[in-house]
Design a protein that fits this description.
There is one protein chain. By secondary structure, the chain is mostly helical. 73% of the residues lie in helices and 1% in strands. It is built from 15 helices and two strands. The N and C termini lie far apart (90 Å).
């Protein structure tokens, strides 16, 4: 019976995949009627590569400053500009095809790729230290939180049907991934630093019989506070100093200003929710890896991302040891014995 069910499911999946659109020719009418093409045609002026070239001339200010002050950043600026042009052009071509086909395999496939890139950025590039399983835990936290929030927000806040409509879903979840990445990076870094700096306190609590949660709870609370503070601050000052990005994009596309403001509000609330949930999951995972179920503190699991060469230090002399004791407020054992005899 199970084999027959598997065959039926495979057949239905094959039928569903056969009805999906996998490619749309750029010269076909469907491609011209895709949402991205229609939006670009409704703008006042179509932008060309000459417009991009004119804007690129402004980078001469950066290059001039680098050459004048000998910053050594002229080549870095040129490489970054070329990467910006190439990456955004390829992204535009890819998104154009996805928007035209509306294929769920493409949509969720690109979502998975973005999630992997976000987890890799946090684990291997932003983190000064990492621990075993950090990539998997970070990917699960970011992917799960952003995906659930994006589907819920698109379905009920943005009134999209289906909720994974590419023209709204992919840009939205991209913004969620970017902000979740920042929150997770700050949160996990705070947990690792706190347990390392306050190692003696954590070990003392464990020695006196504290549970695993009692040890990690203050660390988790501080990490969440540090990670969520930028998101809350950004949400509180939005609209006071500058026009936020989503609202700016909608205004430049010719949308109604009030509609653009509502879209920005919805996106900010989605960002706040996804950042909070993903940071909570990753911080708890990090804390429970570094404080195991025994419970014991396992800072030996930390791995330096970019290890620095250690400088061998000499053994301190008797005078330097005495100075260190006096600075720390401790008294040598010999002095304690002498004071005890004089009492």
């Amino acid at each position: 019976m199970s084999i027959n069910n598997a065959v039926d499911v495979t057949r239905e999946l094959f039928i569903w995949l056969s009805h999906q659109r996998w490619y749309v020719s750029p010269w076909s009418p469907e491609y011209a009627q895709s949402p991205a093409h229609i939006d670009s045609m409704e703008t006042d002026i179509a932008l060309t590569w000459s417009n991009v070239g004119v804007a690129a001339l402004l980078l001469g200010i950066n290059v001039a400053l680098s050459l004048w002050l000998r910053l050594g950043m002229a080549s870095s600026i040129a490489v970054a500009a070329l990467r910006c042009i190439g990456q955004l052009t390829m992204l535009g071509i890819l998104l154009k095809q996805i928007f035209a086909t509306g294929n769920p395999v493409y949509i969720f496939g690109m979502t998975a790729v973005l999630g992997v890139l976000a987890a890799s950025e946090v684990t291997y590039w932003r983190a000064k230290r990492r621990f075993p399983g950090m990539f998997g835990g970070t990917f699960a936290a970011i992917m799960g939180s952003a995906l659930l929030v994006a589907l819920f927000g698109n379905a009920y806040a943005l009134n999209m049907s289906p909720a994974y409509t590419a023209v709204k879903f992919i840009p939205t979840i991209g913004m969620l991934f970017g902000n979740c990445m920042i929150g997770v990076s700050i949160g996990t870094g705070s947990v690792m630093d706190a347990l390392d700096v306050h190692r003696a306190r954590a070990e003392a609590m464990l020695c006196f019989g504290a549970s695993r949660w009692e040890v990690v709870r203050p660390v988790v609370v501080d990490a969440l506070r540090n990670a969520l503070l930028p998101t809350i601050t950004n949400m509180g000052i939005t609209g006071l100093i500058s026009i936020p990005g989503v609202m700016t994009g909608w205004i430049l596309a010719g949308a109604d200003v009030l509609q653009a403001a509502r879209y920005q509000q919805i996106i900010l609330f989605m960002i706040s929710a996804s950042t909070a949930s993903s940071t909570l999951l990753s911080v708890l995972f990090c804390a429970f890896v570094l404080v195991d179920s025994v419970p014991s503190l396992r800072l030996d699991r930390l791995i330096e991302t970019n290890p620095q060469p250690r400088i061998e230090s000499r053994m301190p002399s008797r005078a330097s040891s005495r100075i260190a004791l006096l600075r720390s407020g401790c008294r040598p054992k010999s002095e304690l014995i002498q004071s005890a005899f004089h009492m």
